[in-house]
UniProtKB/TrEMBL annotation:
<keyword id="KW-0255">Endonuclease</keyword>
<dbReference type="InterPro" id="IPR013551">
    <property type="entry name" value="YicC-like_C"/>
</dbReference>
<feature type="domain" description="Endoribonuclease YicC-like N-terminal">
    <location>
        <begin position="3"/>
        <end position="155"/>
    </location>
</feature>
<protein>
    <recommendedName>
        <fullName>YicC-like family, N-terminal region</fullName>
    </recommendedName>
</protein>
<dbReference type="GO" id="GO:0016787">
    <property type="term" value="F:hydrolase activity"/>
</dbReference>
<dbReference type="Pfam" id="PF03755">
    <property type="entry name" value="YicC-like_N"/>
</dbReference>
<dbReference type="InterPro" id="IPR013527">
    <property type="entry name" value="YicC-like_N"/>
</dbReference>
<keyword id="KW-0378">Hydrolase</keyword>
<comment type="similarity">
    <text>Belongs to the YicC/YloC family.</text>
</comment>
<keyword id="KW-0540">Nuclease</keyword>
<dbReference type="Pfam" id="PF08340">
    <property type="entry name" value="YicC-like_C"/>
</dbReference>
<dbReference type="InterPro" id="IPR005229">
    <property type="entry name" value="YicC/YloC-like"/>
</dbReference>
<feature type="domain" description="Endoribonuclease YicC-like C-terminal">
    <location>
        <begin position="173"/>
        <end position="293"/>
    </location>
</feature>
<dbReference type="GO" id="GO:0004521">
    <property type="term" value="F:RNA endonuclease activity"/>
</dbReference>
Length: 293
């Protein structure tokens, strides 16, 4: 199954102590590149997060954010009465009267050191990893499902485009026998016209040799055979399970090379039109596989 390199996954969980939110998004990239944003003090968990990502993804630029917010409880805070009274006395002395102005207490509570947190600091973030890991896994699994869903749509489109190329190739193969005979007839007509106009005699063997040279130069049988083989390989790679994105790039490159050769060697209008259509389909394939893992 093809996997797109574009996707999004999210997971969140809340218990009596904390809220954990994990978001993972990915875009296309030639290699696997991970960028993380982790709230303090959980930055030490980044190696564990990278291990989980690399276990699931092989290519793409991945951005993962981990937010851990401890729930606030009344018992986690206390007033520093000494600081509060010190601020109050100094401010009243500064304004020069004992009457407190409106919102005086609110202003005091916002000053540094008045409200203190009694929540214990986390000494070892790794101790929290067993609770956080399942949430990261859930977000990555959702990201993977998103990539699979888009990959299925891409696979259908790639198969359709390959089928379109195969159809045009069969048109080319059916046209090949007529190319030499058409050239021979056109050459004979030109020679006849030349003989009538100028009375120049042309030996039949010269005409035969010219046609033979053209047939050799315009022979595209090998290119047709190789392009058919590349189309079969393309179909096999699309259905493989081992991150086929790079393999598809190589196969499509070879398909393009054979198509260009067919277009340059076959001196025929119908074949040229078919080659133009094949090149258009190949360009669409190139754009799609840029996003295949």
């Amino acid at each position: 199954m093809l996997l797109s390199m574009t996707g999004f996954g999210e997971a969140r969980r809340q218990d009596e102590a904390r809220t954990v939110v994990v978001e993972a998004r990915s875009v296309n990239g030639r290699h696997l590149k991970l960028s993380t944003r982790v709230s303090d003090p959980f930055g030490a968990l980044e190696p564990e997060i990278e291990r989980l990502v690399r276990h699931r993804l092989k290519r793409g630029t991945v951005q993962l954010s981990l937010r851990v917010e401890a729930l606030r409880r009344p018992e986690d805070y206390r007033l520093n009465l000494a600081a509060l009274e010190g601020y109050r006395a100094q401010l009243l002395a500064f304004i020069g009267h004992a009457q407190e102005p409106p919102d005086f207490l609110s202003a005091l509570l916002s000053l540094p050191g008045v409200v203190e947190s009694t929540r214990a600091t986390l000494d070892d973030p790794h101790a929290e990893w067993p609770a956080i890991e399942p949430i990261v896994v859930e977000a990555l699994d959702q990201l993977q499902r998103s990539r699979q869903e888009e990959g299925r749509a891409m696979e259908q489109e790639l198969r359709s485009l390959a089928s379109e190329i195969a159809g045009h190739l069969e048109r080319v193969a059916a046209r090949v026998p007529n190319v030499v005979s058409s050239y021979r007839d056109r050459l004979a007509d030109r020679v006849s016209a030349l003989v009538q106009e100028r009375g120049i005699a042309i030996e039949p063997e010269h005409l035969i040799r010219e046609v033979a040279i053209f047939a050799e130069r315009s022979d595209i049988a090998e290119e047709i055979t190789r392009l058919r083989a590349h189309l079969q390989q393309f179909d096999a790679v699309v259905t493989s399970d081992d991150a086929p994105g790079r393999k598809l790039e190589f196969v499509v490159q070879e398909m393009g090379r054979e198509t260009n050769t067919i277009g340059s060697k076959a001196n025929d209008v119908e074949i040229s039109r078919a080659v133009v259509e094949m090149k258009g389909a190949l360009e669409k394939i190139r754009e799609l596989i840029q996003n295949v893992e």
